[in-house]
Write a structure and sequence with these properties.
mainly alpha, oxidoreductase, oxygen carrier activity, Globin-like, 7 helices, single chain, iron
């Protein structure tokens, strides 16, 4: 059984919403990171490669930014594929959370920032229904990540 608070119908519509944005994983992932770095410049401090980049154009062209954007979207994609199986979902979220908490020491508030930007982008590109159907998923992801951080003593 699932610890997730999503119904079967919600899982279906969330998967449909995610598919739309995941089709262009690298471009959309990059757009999300560039927006985060531009609107929340302190988030750049975690990425040694990106620190010196000030213009959005420069970031968009960067192989490192593009690579990480794609990586973020791939990780979320793995989670979305397992929304109906909490054990498998946690199997993906837990090591990711632990790594960001212990090795990378990323402030957990940044997960909420990145999720909110993904939701904004969904709304801009595909409308409010798309955003609404993915909102619960981002809440699940952030809740689980925050729990892992607590366990790691944050």
């Amino acid at each position: 059984s699932s610890t997730m608070s999503l119904s079967e119908a919600e899982v279906q519509s969330a998967c449909g919403a995610w598919e739309k944005i995941y089709v262009d994983a690298e471009d959309n992932g990059t757009a999300v990171l560039v927006r985060m770095f531009t609107e929340h410049p302190d988030t750049k401090s975690y990425f040694t490669h990106f620190k010196g980049m000030d213009s959005a154009e420069e970031m968009k062209q960067s192989d490192q930014v593009r690579g990480h954007g794609k990586k973020v979207f791939s990780a979320i994609n793995n989670m979305v594929q397992h929304l109906d199986n909490s054990e498998a979902f946690l199997g993906i979220v837990t090591p990711l959370g632990k790594k960001h908490a212990t090795q990378l020491k990323i402030d957990p508030k940044n997960f909420r920032i990145i999720c909110d930007i993904i939701l904004q982008l969904m709304e801009e590109k595909f409308g409010g229904d798309c955003k609404a159907s993915f909102e619960k998923v981002t809440n699940e992801i952030c809740t689980h990540l925050n729990n892992i951080y607590k366990e790691e003593g944050w």
